[in-house]
């Protein structure tokens, strides 16, 4: 009885398994990253790809399509200056300037609705080209 | 990470009809001067050792060390004085807005507590003296009606300030708090410079009326003048005392510098006239001087710094020069990778040798301005703002004969086929002109606005980039161009295209901050996402073994990418040149040379991995 509160301005809903995949990443650290896509036919956000904990940031950037928008969640592990191991979850709104306008509009208007479902995001990044999603940028934000 | 290996400094910016004021620190033997928005600290013992301060927002005019050598006060045309530390990364201590117009001269008091600044402005605001740390005024300076060109602080107590200016007046103030005492109108033209002797007993003023007058330091009364026999034949722009206070050095628009002996009664007699060898033109007029320890430094209008030795006035001077304006292109000669040629838009081509520094200026018979510049083994091809292309043959250090070709409209970009330099392609608005030697072989109208071009080293292929970001590849057959392919990937007008030295790839940069490396044969993208610049890409260079590509941009950064690795593993040099990087070249696998708007040329070396 999933009560789908589809009150995004684009009429988008969020599929249950998207949220549960995210919860798995957050609670049990089963995945390194999850990439979400908007399925226009079903009018909801679905999971496109997940990456295991062994995968690196480069694998993650390679899975992002060049010409289309996506949402992604990445679990970033790092060591702080005080030598403690920390892990922060990043939400990345990938919206390359070479993608179609329709795609950018769709993802932009549905982003808010989708983000509200995901609790526990530490940082959000909007990337319009690969340089804005660079590992350096992530590292700087995490500090 | 590439480290700065050498800096070939720019020279002081000069203006015809005005002197410039250079200063120094006798303890560390450094000289301070300004060029554009930068203040340059040059070590006289080792001219390759320069430090540059670029924090002014307006063109800087004068800079001075404090008496203890710890601070430098520098001023600019907006009337702002910045006080910053000599060591410790030039940290800013204070900034004051002192005058309403540009500042022409600045002096510290001998105890380092007060600063007097003079310049342009209105009414009262022509000269101001203030405490160095708080900025509170220490006197009222009226008495001048026009721009005050120079000011000087008496180095011994009781403190006095002397100012002189365009209203032909020399004013004397007593204090602190400084009050007007008396004024002299002995000069009949602009009084360019006034300086107290190191012991404070006398001060001398020099003027565009070719005279130098000596006054008593305590009372301000005239006591004598520089003798009129063997006097300067042109305006005297600057004066400097020797450290013992017995001699002065003056420089003048008659292209000579003179050393005078000053006697106790206040008269001066000529001791020696120093001339610098030069081409004899206007550029040899001397506009600035400084006597520091054993060195007599003179600066000419063309920017040449000549260093004479006080102990041996007969010895030929050491001459240093460089660029005064934006260095728009660089070339490294294949025959001698240690030799770098740089050209700036005012038509100056300078030769530098790595490890040594300034090597000489390439004197061309026709001194036109240069917009595009290319060098092959024995030849230099330049184009300027007239419609001509000049081919100048190069023999070692000298320029031989120059031939010019008129191509009908202003050239936008120029490229030489490196292996057969006879062939040159030049683009104008929407046409390409093919040149063999100095003959225009053909002019082809392309139909689109052209912004960049490159010719393959063997002359078989050419790539022409347009305003719309499309790359057109042409095959050169005989005298015509046949279009073979159009590549669309760039999202802005193309600014630079370069073939790799091994001819297997080419790289292109555009005005939208992106660079792309393509494979030449398949015309596929080899390396993309080189989007790390934040402003238009101005120049691009390949390393000799075609493994590295460097891009330089208006955002002052140089980024070096490795072709085999993803674009994110790049090496960035931030702040390479204040104002933007305009020229780039590799001298060997690990050294990049860059030049930019700040008129400097820098060599960066990265450690081999």
Automatic annotation (TrEMBL), chain A:
- Which family is annotated? Belongs to the actin-binding proteins ADF family.
Q: What does the organism's lineage look like at the top? A: Eukaryota, Viridiplantae, Streptophyta, Embryophyta, Tracheophyta
Q: What is this protein called?
A: Actin-depolymerizing factor-like
**InterPro entries according to UniProt:** ADF-H, ADF-H/Gelsolin-like_dom_sf, ADF/Cofilin
Gene that specifies this protein = LOC110422116
**What are this entry's molecular-function GO terms?**
actin binding
The record's keywords, sorted A to Z, are: Actin-binding
Q: Please give the Gene3D superfamilies that the UniProt record associates with this protein.
A: Severin (3.40.20.10)
Domain of life where this protein originates: Eukaryota
- Which positions, given as ranges, span the membrane? none
Positions of the ADF-H domain: 11-143
> Which organism was this protein described from?
Herrania umbratica
Q: What does the entry give for GO biological process?
A: actin filament depolymerization
Please give an example of a GO cellular component term from this record.
actin cytoskeleton
Instruction: Please provide an example of a Pfam family that matches this protein in its UniProt record.
Output: Cofilin_ADF
From TrEMBL, chain B:
**Which residue intervals correspond to the WD repeats?**
53-94, 184-225, 229-262, 487-519, 530-571, 574-609
**What's a single GO CC term here?**
cortical actin cytoskeleton
> What keyword terms does UniProt attach to this protein?
Actin-binding, Repeat, WD repeat
SMART domains xrefs:
WD40
The family database entries (InterPro entries) matched by this protein are listed as:
WD40/YVTN_repeat-like_dom_sf, WD40_repeat_CS, WD40_repeat_dom_sf, WD40_rpt
GO BP: actin filament depolymerization
Q: Molecular function terms in GO for this entry?
A: actin filament binding
The record ties this protein, via PANTHER family, to: WD REPEAT-CONTAINING PROTEIN 1, WD-REPEATCONTAINING PROTEIN WDR1
Q: What does this protein's UniProt record list under function? A: Binds actin. Enhances the F-actin depolymerization activity of actin-depolymerizing factor (ADF) proteins.
* Name of the protein in its database record: Actin-interacting protein 1-2
């Amino acid at each position: 009885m999933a009560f789908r509160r589809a009150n995004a301005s684009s009429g988008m809903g969020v599929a249950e398994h998207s949220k549960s995949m995210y919860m798995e990443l957050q609670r049990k650290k089963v995945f390194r990253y999850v990439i979400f896509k908007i399925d226009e036919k079903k009018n909801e956000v679905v999971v496109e790809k997940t990456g295991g904990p062994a995968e690196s940031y480069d694998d993650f950037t390679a899975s992002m399509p060049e010409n289309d928008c996506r949402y992604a969640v990445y679990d970033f592990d790092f060591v702080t200056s005080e030598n403690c191991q920390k892990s922060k979850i990043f939400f990345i709104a990938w919206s390359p300037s070479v993608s179609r306008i329709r795609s950018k509009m769709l993802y932009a208007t549905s982003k808010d609705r989708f983000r509200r479902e995901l609790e526990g995001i530490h940082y959000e990044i909007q990337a319009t080209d690969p340089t804005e999603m660079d590992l350096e940028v992530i590292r700087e934000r995490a500090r | 990470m590439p480290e700065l290996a050498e800096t070939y400094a720019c020279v002081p910016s000069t203006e015809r009809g005005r002197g410039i004021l250079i200063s120094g620190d006798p303890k560390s033997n450094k000289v301070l001067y300004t060029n554009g928005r930068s203040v340059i600290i040059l070590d006289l013992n080792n001219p390759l050792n320069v430090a540059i301060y670029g924090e002014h927002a307006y063109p800087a005019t004068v800079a001075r060390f404090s008496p203890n050598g710890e601070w430098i006060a520098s001023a600019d045309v907006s009337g702002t004085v910045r006080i910053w530390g000599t060591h410790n990364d030039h940290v800013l201590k204070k900034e004051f807005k002192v005058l309403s117009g540009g500042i022409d001269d600045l002096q510290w008091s001998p105890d380092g507590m007060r600063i007097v600044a003079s310049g342009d402005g209105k009414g009262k605001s022509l000269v101001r003296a203030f405490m160095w740390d708080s900025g509170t005024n220490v006197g009222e300076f009226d008495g001048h009606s026009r721009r005050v060109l120079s000011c000087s602080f008496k180095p011994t107590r009781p403190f006095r300030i002397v100012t002189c200016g365009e209203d032909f007046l020399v004013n004397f103030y007593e204090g602190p708090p400084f009050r007007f005492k008396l004024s002299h109108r002995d000069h009949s033209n602009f009084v360019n410079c006034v300086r107290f002797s190191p012991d404070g007993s006398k001060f001398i003023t020099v003027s565009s009326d070719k005279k130098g007058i000596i006054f008593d330091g305590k009372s301000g009364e005239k006591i004598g003048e520089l003798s009129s026999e063997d006097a300067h034949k042109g305006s005297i722009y600057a004066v400097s005392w020797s450290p013992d206070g017995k001699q002065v050095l003056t420089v003048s628009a008659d292209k000579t510098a003179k050393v005078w002996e000053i006697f106790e009664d206040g008269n001066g007699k000529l001791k020696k006239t120093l001339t610098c060898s030069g081409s004899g033109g206007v550029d040899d007029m001397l506009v600035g001087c400084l006597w520091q320890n054993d060195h007599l430094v003179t600066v000419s209008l063309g920017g040449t710094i000549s260093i004479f030795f006080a102990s041996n006035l007969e010895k030929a001077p050491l001459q240093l020069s460089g660029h005064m304006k934006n260095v728009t292109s660089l070339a490294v000669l294949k025959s001698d990778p240690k030799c770098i040629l740089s050209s700036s838009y005012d038509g100056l081509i300078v030769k530098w040798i790595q490890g040594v520094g300034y090597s000489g200026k390439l004197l061309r018979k026709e001194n036109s301005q240069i917009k595009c510049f290319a060098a092959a083994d024995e030849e230099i091809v330049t184009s300027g703002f007239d419609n001509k292309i000049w081919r100048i043959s190069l023999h070692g250090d000298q320029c031989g004969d120059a031939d010019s070709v008129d191509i009908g409209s202003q050239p936008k970009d120029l490229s030489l086929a490196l292996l057969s330099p006879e062939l040159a392609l030049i683009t104008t608005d929407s046409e390409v002109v093919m040149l063999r030697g100095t003959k225009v072989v053909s002019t082809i109208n392309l139909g689109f606005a052209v912004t960049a071009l490159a010719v393959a080293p063997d002359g078989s292929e050419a790539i022409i980039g347009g305003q719309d970001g499309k790359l057109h590849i042409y095959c050169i057959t005989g005298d015509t161009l046949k279009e073979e392919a159009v590549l669309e990937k760039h999202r802005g007008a193309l600014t630079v295209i370069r073939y790799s030295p091994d001819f297997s790839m080419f790289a292109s940069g555009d005005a939208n901050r992106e660079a792309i490396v393509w494979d030449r044969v398949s015309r596929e993208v080899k390396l993309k996402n080189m989007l790390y610049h934040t402003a238009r890409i101005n120049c691009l260079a390949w390393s000799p073994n075609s493994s590295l590509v460097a891009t330089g941009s208006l955002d002052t950064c140089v980024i070096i990418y490795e072709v085999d690795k993803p674009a994110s593993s790049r090496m960035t040099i931030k702040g390479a040149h204040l104002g933007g990087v305009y020229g780039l070249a590799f001298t060997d696998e690990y050294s990049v040379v860059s030049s930019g708007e700040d008129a400097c040329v820098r060599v960066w070396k990265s450690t081999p991995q």
